[in-house]
Amino acid sequence: MKEIQMSDISYSEKRRRRVKRLKCMIVIAFFTVVTIPIALCIYLGCTLYGVNNDLAEITAQYEAQLEITDELQSKLEAEKYAREAAIVESSEAAVDLNTVSSDTATVKTNTTDEEPEEIQAEDDINHVYLTFDDGPSIYTEEILDILDQYDAKATFFVTGEAATEHPERYKMIADRGHTLAMHSYSHKYSEVYKNKDNFVKDFNKIRDFIRETTGVTPVIYRFPGGSSNRVSATDMNELCEYLEDEGIHYFDWNVSSGDATSQTLSRDRIVANCLAGIYSHKDSVVLLHDTSAKYTTVAALPVILEQLSKLENTEICAITEDTPVVQHREIKENE
Ligand SMILES: [Zn+2]
Q: What is the distance in A from the centroid of ligand 1 to the CA of 64?
């Protein structure tokens, strides 16, 4: 009886423990299945919220940066256009300068009248004097051929640079009916303009050379850099007077092709510069260059001549001693 009671107690104790374990397991299972995911969700939710905030901030910063970049970009574009405009403006200013220089350039008769007389058109004919400086060069013959095609005569202000190796080029210019004019022998500013003696020596050298080589005695002169150059160490008035005394007519120009720049000017720019100048003058003395570097000038020449051939009352002529001079400086003989 006592044994039966003992076994009952032990059985109920075991059962109680089992139920307790089960309860424990249920609680653990509840926590595992419900609480942990909830906590995890809360944690993830918070993290997501933070990430969202960060993302919003980064997006805002990115957009602000984008705006700044856009602004910089448009500023750069604006600057680029401004620079391009300035380049165009400066080249147009060069054309204007030609116009201005033509206004300041005095057009005088070659008479010995005391007061240089302003030339008014005695007729309706406009004159275009194409002048080529610094030659002769590898392009001289080509230039002469193009001029021939249009039956046009021009003026070549030559230096002595090609004297030794190509004396025939000087003769070619004269033989084909163009004016062979002087532009100093050395064309070195530091030598030609060092003092009057140097200038005289250089002047006689180029005049004698042309005379001996071609049989032509030149009477037309153009100062290297023009009579208004600012590099001469000698008073230009003194040199102008010297040439006058020698019976030499010196010419500057009132239209510039702009081909003297170290950068090669495009053919179209040269054409545009020349035509703009010619259209705005009754009589135009057009400055061009004949050197091995000026191939775009050669390319521009037929286009210029073609356009000029379409103009009414316009003659293309070579400068002679009867041509009214175009000079940048006023001779101060009447002062
Ligand atoms: Zn020159």
A: 58
Distance 142 CA to ligand 1 centre (A): 20
Nearest 10 degrees: Cα torsion 112, 182, 226, 237: -50
Q: Quote the tokens at residue 143.
A: 């230039």
Distance 111 CA to ligand 1 centre (A): 27
Ion ligand 1: residues, Cβ under 5 Å:
133-134, 224
Q: What is the DSSP letter of 254?
A: S
**DSSP state, 331?**
P
Q: Global pTM?
A: 0.65
Give the distance (Å) from ligand 1 centre to CA of residue 105: 18
Domain limits, the chain: 1-98, 105-110+117-334
Scanning the chain, the segments in alpha helix (DSSP H) are 2-30, 36-104, 140-149, 167-175, 189-192, 196-214, 236-245, 267-279, 295-309
The string of pLDDT tens digits covering residues 253-310 is 999 999 999 899 999 999 999 999 999 999 999 999 999 999 999 999 999 999 999 9
- Tell me how far the alpha carbon of residue 251 lies from the centroid of ligand 1, in angstroms: 12
- Fold classification of 105-110+117-334 (topology level): TIM Barrel (3.20.20)
